Amino acid sequence: MKHYLLLAGLFACVLSASAQKVGTKPNVINQGVNPMTQTDNRGKFINEQRVRDMQRDNLMADKHKPSRSIVVNNEQWRNTKIVEKDANGNVTGTTEVEFLDNGNIKSKVSSFYQDGQIIGGYMITYEYDDNGNITKEVESKLVAPPNTYAKTRETVWVYNGSPINTLYYYLNYDDTGAISHGYKSAYEFDSFGHMTMQEESYYVNNEWKPSSRQEWKWDGNYRYMSLRLYDWDNTTKKWQSGNKEVSEERTPGKVNVVYGKYDWDAAKQDWVVNGEQKEGYNEYGDLILYSYLENYGGVYTGWRYNIDIISEQHKTVHFYDWSQDTNDWIETSYSNEIYDENGNIATSSMYNSDNKLESTSEYTWEKFNIGTDVYPDCYIVGEASEWQFENSLVGKDMGNGIVVWNDVTIKNGEMFKFASDDWMTFDWGTAYDGEYIPFDQPVKLTNKGMNIKLDMEGTEMTFKSISINVLTGVVAFETYPTSVGSPEAKRVNIFANNGKIVVQNAKDVKVYSASGELISTAAVTPVEKGLYVVKAGGKTVKLNVN
Length: 546
Description:
By secondary structure, the chain is mainly β. It has helices at residues 2-8, 38-61, 487-490; strands at residues 68-86, 91-99, 105-114, 117-128, 134-144, 148-159, 165-173, 179-189, 195-204, 207-215, 225-233, 238-246, 255-265, 270-281, 287-296, 299-311, 314-323, 328-339, 345-352, 357-376, 379-382, 396-399, 402-411, 416-419, 427-429, 443-444, 446-447, 460-469, 474-479, 493-497, 500-504, 510-513, 518-520, 524-526, 530-536, 539-545. The protein has 3 helices and 36 strands. β14 and β15 form a beta hairpin.
């Protein structure tokens, strides 16, 4: 069942922090008995990641925000239903999810079937405060089909009037409805939103019992690592005990330890894995590896998956479990996944290690509006305005990140950029100094690039419109058609660009080599390096193509 549940949230966004890289192959040693179950430990880990994420959001909220008037609709797909079937097409399980209008999950109900009858299931409900922060999560199991449930777990979050979480706890319930055990974590923060203290407690014998207290110092805006060593042996001059936690930023093209917890092996004078989550990304930022390994009383358990991206519509996911016999990962199954034109998973077929089909899942998706993103104005700013952000240079917001200027006159050789008045949100330029920007096709600019220059014939040119997608940096220049009668539209332009000779607004084109041989009559002519003579529209121009 683990793999089926994993598929439903396979590409969920995992929270991140920054740290130095740590990662070695685990050596199994006696770690003692961990008082938390595997499920409890995962819940604790997820909450700690959520706290770090809310810290970051709080810091961003304090930063200066320029005037904002560009509105972009922010929509995301939400998976509302999953139906699982065996190899014969019989339904073995269903999961139905209900969402609020803002896209937050309201409830999830999963049911398991055998011979067409419900044999089990569970339900999870969620509550939020007015700021959209989750405040309660209640898990219940099906005790009497079809719809009688008993509460098994209740999780609560408390905030300090901001997105920062100051208290988190959960309580587990037994079959009689009594509390069986629980976990609580309280947090303190400095004025910058950095966590400075965490105190943990366990619910034992009907009361909370403190377990540990940890404190941190910060390097800049990041808690990159916490480490503790103790029990110094003055005879051997070696540490006898200790622990360490690591959280690395996710970086394309490498495997990161996004969460790692390690214990000190005094005999080996080295760290051994207690709990470790790794993620790997390709150079495009796609997740291609995920693994989780944890030690329970000296015995390792874990799972991982590798993703082979065959195409945009096809991926294969290989699942692994940790083997105690080989002290390594063993592949247990794999899934072929097909995606629709929107990039959402449509079907997944699960196979065992013997390539035998075990089940097929079909996914249904609906789109929810989860809010809007608002960005500052974008300007054409440059030499003409003495690099000042004048109101007359603000582009018109056309929606979804498209900004347009009409009837813009630019002089030959005049430098400019597309930017916001903070020079942070938008700063679009060229990849290198002197790069030519053509008029007849969209061009991808570079974030924080070089100043833009337009290579044109004549002293200036007036464009009918200039449009840019401020989110992607794709810009397009639209000239006036010749029928309008604009002097700029009728002007003949002759220039070289990236190994090509380009002629605009002329029909009688003739391109000659340096020896006088006619080599082309086309408006665009690929050529080798050298000197050429171009005659077009009554003009004769010599071009030295580099």
